[in-house]
Amino acid sequence: MAGDNEVNVNESKRIVPLNTWVLISNFKLAYNLLRRADGSFNRDLAEFLDRRVPANTIPVDGVLSFDHVDRATGLLNRVYLPAPEDGSPWGFDELEKPLSMTDVVPVIVFFHGGSFTHSSANSAIYDTCCRRLVSLCKAVVVSVNYRRSPEHRYPCAYDDGWAALKWVKSRPWLRSGKDSKVHVYLAGDSSGGNIAHNVALRAAEAEVEVLGNILLNPMFGGQERTESEKKLDRKYFVTIQDRDWYWRAFLPEGEDRDHPACNPFGPRGKSLEGLKFPKSLVVVAGLNLVQDWQLAYIEGLKKNNQEVKLLFLKEATIGFYFLPNNNHFYTLMDEIKEFIHPDC
Amino acid sequence: MGPFDSVAASGTNSPSSTLSSSSSSSSSIAKPPPPPANDRLLVDAGYEVRSSNLRHLACRLDHLDSIFSAGEAAVPSAVGLHRSDTAVPDGFLGLPFDACAAAHYNPSDLTSWVDTLLSEFSGPLHPDAAAQLGCWSSVGPTGTFGQQNLNVPAAAQPMAALTAQEEDSGIRLVHLLMLCAERVQSGEIQQATTLLDEMQALLSYVNTSRGIGKVASYFIDALSRRVLNVGLPDSSPATTYENEVLYHHFYEACPYFKYAHFTANQAILEAMEGEDTVHVIDFDLKHGLQWPALIQALALRAGGPPMLRLTGIGPPSPDGRDTLKEIGLRLAELAESVNVRFSFRGIVAVRLEDVKPWMLRVGKGEAVAINSIMQLHRLLGAEANKAEPIDSVLSWIREMKPTIVTVVEQEANHNQARFLERFTEALHYYSTVFDSLEAACSVQPNKALAEMYLHKEICNVVCCDGAARTERHEPLSEWRQRMDRAGFSPTPLGSNAYKQAKMLLTLFSADGYDVEENNGCLTLGWHSRPLIAASAWHTAPNPPALPDPNHNSLL
Predict the structure, then answer these.
(1) What is the ipTM of this complex?
(2) Res A96 pLDDT > 80
(3) Residues A13, B49: C-beta atoms closer than 8 Å
(4) Distance from A272 to chain B by nearest Cα, in Å?
(5) Which of A283, B13, B106, B207 has the most CB atoms in a 10 Å sphere around its CB?
(6) How much is the pLDDT for B79?
(7) pLDDT per residue over B77-124, tens digit each?
């Protein structure tokens, strides 16, 4: 950051590569059209505009994918696997064996972003993201198509996340390593990061092992208006007004932003004492207006004696990880890779 | 000079002043940016935006953003706990959004999406917006907030009632087309225009996605362009790339070009038996699709392959690329992989008649093959008071004493003096071609783009005159006479070529294609209507007859 009080309104154009700027501005524009002032959402238009891609068991750039739908709940998970190294075609009979008998293959349960309201597991931007995670971080990824607000408020997304985690942990074909278990990490960007935290919480309470949390630009908030919110409002694609809208759409009606789902370490926050909570990697973009809440989250974890690493990317805006055209992207991938392969 | 150099030819009278000779590229102009391509990363995100268009798109997005900001400033802020802050109805500022969705069909095409929004929401620039437009210089449109038309989707067209009615309408359409052409012939433009209106109305009762309806709609379009002076489908140099795309899809969608290449190659192969050095001169290289097969066939020749020289003639690339050289390089790589000694030379020419024989650099002892696929008919038009270039071109070809001249042409008479006859012939010819496309090709976008390719041809035949009309197809009988007058004798294509052409056709699923032998020539047609004629020629021993002064269609 420049260190001034006044952030030049043209800054985003100078800081962000042109194609990223076009991409995120387009989202911002489209999202403006979809949110209604009365709190409802134009879901039909949203679905029409969202760019989707199908799964593909034929590897593309070394990654293949397939979808699993839970018949009882309709919950869809998209699984991303690295292509077989010897170049042989992949078939569903591969699901009769574990990922590896010797090596540990981390499985990342990924929750896409969209402020609880937008996008899906099969949105093009997220499908591409997950594929990159597989190839660059050497992991298997399971992307969860959780139910979104305002049609489905708290705690639906967390319930779906929890169901997905249980599903992943119980798949024999996701096991790896000599200890033959599913080495699972939770990850997500924006609202996905928030979901990851809350699912990890539930897991810790149920004593289900999660090896780590990766919170990329996680969506947190509170009643108070923080410095970063006031300073960066409307400057880098995000506005306080839209943040408020999404919280109102997600939280139970009548609730305010100090609800623990939004503000986990705020006045109504919960202690993590005695819980075996996973280690966390929290990525904060220096030009995201929500960063004070993200930093407060990190403080909260520390106060609860939980292991947390902050990756602060000073000149990054939201969505820097959608296109691999900047240093932050590669820094992020390296950090994640190191995080999930601690012994390498 | 290496094997891949190119020579530029121009239309002036003093070649020495315009010739630019270079060792690696034909262009002495500074290279413009590479051809338009979509931003790869945005493609991964599901959006198609040309890289060259990004900046412009960003400006427009920025402008839209400032419009929204201006709007929000007018609306009481929603910051805080209150949920139902304002009385703003569905949409934004009273403007329903579903109208946009109806108007915009492809959200991947960001540019048109943004333009659609801009045209619906464009209003006065917020005072700060101009400053916010900052480092991008373009300023958006100004105006007042328009009243949004509630775009109720148009009621669905009444379905074509009975097949009989459709048939009747189809027949009536053809009748009207002929009537309209007669009016155009006699200069009665007013009546022609009225007939055009009537035909347009009739089109809504006909299924225009296939059959007579489709062909009729193309011809109505072409007639309209002629009568109303609307202009041709874009033929600017910038769309040369698009033309290449259309050609490529036409090539894939139906067998005509493949047949042409195949048959010509067969004739060349047979004629060049025993020759050590073969020099093929291709009058229109295009994508060079004809040559890999010849190279491979030569590689397998009994006694080993000859040295193959290929001279490819083509138009300049608008974006400064040396397309000819690129194609030449690819062919060279192929030749190398099958151990055929090969060299390539590209000749850039806007018009075929601008190519002079000395540019072709035919060497001593080379056996020459001249290859013309759908090119000779372009030489039949002439500028006012000038002779048709065909005679001089055929003359220098003859002087070169080629071992073989392969000629493939559309089997149609689209060069008649009178418009009405031309139009009628074209209507029948292209109906047959469209018919074959429909039956034989269901692959999209091949079919749609192949139709666009044909559409351009149709428009040229129907709308253009004089030097602009390049599609001057003449039937085989006419070409026989011309070649004979120019001092050539026919080289019969033979039963081998015939058998192989038939085999080629079995690769195409539709049972309508016919190969016919026609006095030493082969025609490819659809359901007994020949559409393409292939012939081969060599230099006759007798000196040529003088050019026929009556054979001059100056129109």
Answers:
(1) 0.88
(2) yes
(3) no
(4) 29
(5) A283
(6) 28
(7) 332 222 333 333 344 444 444 544 444 557 888 888 888 777 766 544
Cβ neighbours of A38 in B, within 8 Å: 83-84
Contact B110 A128 (CB under 8 A): no
Please list every residue in chain B whose beta carbon sits closer than 8 Å to the beta carbon of residue A128: 44-45
Considering only residues B234 and B200, tell me which one the structure prediction assigns the higher pLDDT: B200
The structure tokens listed for B438 are: 């429909």
Alpha carbon distance B26, B327 (integer Å): 14
pTM for this model (two decimals):
0.51
Mean pLDDT, to the nearest integer, of A47-76?
87
Give CA angle at A214 (A213, A220), nearest 5°.
Answer: 95
* Average pLDDT of the residues of chain B: 75
Q: At what angle do helices B163-185 and B189-203 cross, to 10 degrees?
A: 160
Query: Within its chain, how far is the Cα of B453 from the centroid?
Result: 5
Q: How far apart are CA A141 and CA A118, in angstroms?
A: 20
Q: How far apart are CA B486 and CA B398, in angstroms?
A: 8
Q: Which of A29, A39, A45 sits opposite B98 (nearest CB)?
A: A45
Sequence-ordered strand ranges (E) for B397-543 = 404-410, 488-490, 513-518, 521-526, 529-539
B135:A14 CB<8 A: yes
* Percent of chain B whose pLDDT exceeds 90: 27
- Determine the Cα–Cα distance for residues B379 and B376; give it in Å rounded to an integer: 6
Closest chain B C-alpha to A233 CA, distance in angstroms: 12
Residues of B in contact with A325 (CB under 8 A): 41
Are B77 and A241 in contact (CB < 8 Å)? yes
Put simply, the answer to whether A18 touches B55 (Cβ < 8 Å) is yes
Q: What phi and psi, each to the nearest 5 degrees, are found at residue B332?
A: -65, -40
Considering only CB atoms, B44 lies closest to which of A21, A33, A128, namely: A128
Q: How far is B91 from chain A (nearest CA, A)?
A: 7
What's the whole-number mean pLDDT along residues B494-513?
78
User: What is the Cα–Cα distance from B391 to B420, expressed in whole angstroms?
Assistant: 27
CA distance linking residue A73 with residue B478, whole number of Å:
74
Q: Which of B79-88, B281-290, B307-316, B351-360 has the weakest average pLDDT? A: B79-88
Q: From the CA of A15, how many Å to the nearest CA of chain B?
A: 12
Cβ separation of A22 and B58 shorter than 8 Å?
yes
The interface residues of chain A toward chain B in range 194-253, judged by CB-CB distance below 8 A, are: 234, 240-241, 244-245, 248
Q: What is the pLDDT of residue A289?
A: 95
Residue B465, both tokens? 């005159």
